[in-house]
Amino acid sequence: MRILLTVLIVQSVIGAASAALKPVETDIRPANNKAVAVYKTTPQGDLNINLYFPSNWKALDRRPAIVFFFGGSCATGSPAQFGATAEYFAGRGMVAAAPEYRIESIHHTPPERCIEDGKSAIRWLRMNARHLGIEMRHVIAGGGSSGASIAAFAAYNTDFEPEDEDRSVSHEPNALVLLNPAFGCPPGESSQGAPCAVMASWKVSKVGPPAILFYGTEDPLQEGGRDFTRRLIAAGTRTEFYTAMGQPHGFFNRFPDSPWHALVLRQIDVFLTSLGYLNGNATVRVPAGIAVALHKERLTP
Fold first, then answer.
1. What is the pTM of this model?
2. pLDDT tens digits, residue range 210-247?
3. 97, 65 in Cβ contact below 8 A?
4. Domain ranges of the chain
5. Quick one: 2-297 is in which CATH superfamily?
6. CA distances from 177 to 12, 246, 283, 291 (A)
């Protein structure tokens, strides 16, 4: 155990000092409305970002962008978790992205690197806006589980910052779409040495980007989400909190064919439309006659 911790600490120090963003140097040429680019080089390997474009996309566009971070406790997972969701929002006119980031099972790095890479991915989108056809002021971040935490920490964490990046380009998203994020360890779980302990390193000190959160009522992380939501509301941030009755942690991606998946996707669409990032009605198909519905909680500070 001591040897493993030593390796992780050494790699953590080296990785933070040596990682660098990789600019887009040639024109993006989507194939079937998709492209892949390297957004960051690290000592543990290059990190790719999967890009999804509307069918009528042009580099001269100034479209809103949305980036989704996969879940897996910063230990496992893949951007494929959000491939279909990214395609949906590209179909609604956004440039969507699903990046890799360093995880323990592949890169043997601690969870701090996940947070840093998430900030890097958002910054990379803004730095390359003219190549990607996006509006720098309209970058939304979202994800599931630890991926949602990564998105939130781009706005509410200052402990883990990528080094040697141009900080004049902000990594703070303009809106947040958070699917069962972790804001600490579940009740009763020891936080000593656990990745979830890092997920408690957030602070709300000012008004921030509008946010929407979703949890299943059987998710042990939901109380942390309520605490986070109350603090956002107290700071004056527009925040919506929804629950899915009887659903476990990760229900959105775990059951992509369920009516809950469609209901959540539609509610995200409605939220982004209300902020002016989408136009028209949601195109996701919600099964007719379903007997379930999302519950919007009215939380107060």
1. 0.92
2. 999 999 999 999 999 999 999 999 999 999 999 999 99
3. yes
4. 2-297
5. Alpha/Beta hydrolase fold, catalytic domain (3.40.50.1820)
6. 28, 21, 18, 25
